[in-house]
Amino acid sequence: MKVAVAGCCHGALDKMYETLELLQRRHNVRPELLLCCGDFQAVRNEADLRCMAVPTKYRHMQSFHRYYSGEKKAPILTIFIGGNHEASNHLQELPYGGWVAPNIYYLGYAGVVRFRGVRIGGISGIFKSHDYRKGHFESPPYNQQTIRSAYHVRNIEVFKLKQLKHPIDVFMSHDWPRSIYHYGNKKQLLKMKSFFRQEVESNTLGSPAASELLQHLKPTYWFSAHLHVKFAAFMQHETNSKEELPKATKFLALDKCLPHRDFLQIIDVEHDPSASDSLEYDAEWIAVLKATNSLVNVTPGLWNMPERNGLHAKWDYSVTEDAIKEVLEELNHNLKIPCNFTLTVPCYDPSKPQKHLEPVHTINPQTTEFCAQFGLTDINHRIQQAKEEGSARGEYEEEEEEMVSTGSAEEPSEYNTDNSGLGSINPDEIMLDDEGGDEDLSTCSVDPSPDHPPDFSASFSDIRIMPDSMAVSSDDAMDSTNEEPEKSGVSKQTENKSLNERPLKRISGNENGSSGSKKIKRRNQAIYAAEDEDKTE
What we know:
alpha/beta, zinc
């Protein structure tokens, strides 16, 4: 089965689909599935724009609203994860995943689905150590803190994914697994992105949480985006026993979606020809969600996942084959995901702009139906309850005020840095400084995409078709100096530790250092406006 993979989409749906149609016309290649690795930007209206963590000048309506309204329909089944530049209020409606438009499916905070027998998993957002152990407590309207923390990966999602035992074929993350660069052509990467050198040499580039998942899941393919550079790697996993067959992961990071950029990859993935051509639930994943439902937390307090340390009565939440069979019986062995998309907010109307439209916390019927069917906690309903109860006691507001005044609480961790707070700046991405700067949540600059988008047929370099093996050559896998690929994923010192090992400790903003607001920069400097592209090339 041919699968198209895209990096940061940034709302350019028309370009992606037009490029795929061009691929079919010119080369008679028609992928059955499109995967997008974050920064999808499912923006429905002006209120959604204000929930996207980018400076005001980069808030553009783009074309997703046309797919949301039904004016257009995605010509190919599209599955995506969230990144760090999203309409967080929209994606928050679907914490367990769901349709954001007909034929366009969001995997949720973390999720696993099946298509044509191929098992596809993913985790949304980026890693940020000081938010990692919090619950999903944010809700619109966001403040300067929560508009960012809303897209930070949480330990509960990693914990759920680590309960999986059955093999994963394809996995997606927005930020790269930390240390994956040691398994590809590191010299070429640093030649293209020299400002990564300090982080690569100190082994701090990328997400330690994603690295932990890579070590555990060992998927056949792992796709990422975020850093706006194309990079391939091949990681051979160590076996845990003599009986275990050796496994390897083919890693590919994709470039951003812009004209004249090689942003789409076509790969061949083994599939089951007899399997359904509908998108399906994954029975093991549903069973894991049911098993871990009691762990759902909607508070900003820091907490650890259960582990075998003498403090928890239960630490293993993996599921038995009987639990998986129960899920299949509940569904009468019909795993097809219902096409139950529905509009939950008004769609953008260029003839009637509403620049001051306020975002609201919405309960999506898809999530309500999903939770009712499988007996799960509706996270958004729980957040609303917590708000109402906290408001009655005057507690919820105090917690948010504490976050704003002291910053996000930090705690000891074997991961001494995280990739979203580094000093080196990627000139190919947008920069958000913590003092707010251009990022004014009270204003909205709407720049709708034109009714007649430009013809991209002249820039067919946007697509590359990978060979069946997606093999990485010896030149790609090593530097020209024949340097041995360094063992990574998680360094030897931390290889046998989990993210949850150390005790919790709150540290004030002063203890974190007064220069934090100047140091913390989001990579991304000119990804939205085409006119900025020439400046960064």
